[in-house]
Amino acid sequence: MSVVAAQFNVGHLDLLDTARTSMDAAGYDKVVLAGNYVAGVAIGKCVDGAYTTADTLDAVLNKK
Ligand SMILES: Cc1cc2nc3c(=O)[nH]c(=O)nc-3n(C[C@H](O)[C@H](O)[C@H](O)COP(=O)(O)OP(=O)(O)OC[C@H]3O[C@@H](n4cnc5c(N)ncnc54)[C@H](O)[C@@H]3O)c2cc1C
After folding, report:
1. What tens digit of pLDDT does each residue of 8-53 get?
2. Which of 5, 7, 33, 38 is least crowded, fewest Cβ atoms below 10 Å from its Cβ?
3. Phi, psi (5° rounding) for residue 47?
4. How many Å apart are CA 39 and CA 53, to the nearest integer?
């Protein structure tokens, strides 16, 4: 039996860029995408991503 690791589809990062750009253009500049579909599926990546998200939210909400 082979084990297949979960991974993003080809083009996923471009899709995320498009989503962020579209949200900014629509005025949702305080919405921050986060989670395994942004950071990576492994728990460690999700934890790293959570720290990045916290920094981003801090900067966005406090206009740094
Ligand atoms: C069966 C399985 C086995 C796995 N095994 C491993 C492994 O061995 N090693 C590994 O590194 N990774 C593993 N993973 C992957 C890893 O667990 C996930 O990628 C990671 O937990 C995702 O983290 P997340 O914060 O993005 O999402 P989640 O951990 O799903 O957290 C999202 C949270 O948001 C909450 N939520 C959802 N909607 C709302 C809402 N509208 N309002 C408020 N709260 C909401 C949910 O209740 C949940 O608590 C496994 C995943 C699965 C499914």
Report:
1. 999 999 999 999 999 999 999 889 999 999 999 999 999 999 999 9
2. 5
3. -65, -45
4. 10
39 C-alpha vs ligand 1 centroid, how far in Å? 12
Per the listing, tokens 């080809």 go with 10
User: Helices (H), strands (E): how many in the chain?
Assistant: 3, 0
CA of 44 from ligand 1 middle (Å) equals 12
C-alpha–C-alpha distance, residues 43 and 45, integer Å? 5
Residue 46 near ligand 1, beta carbon < 6 Å: yes
CA nearest to 34, candidates 24, 15, 21, 48: 48
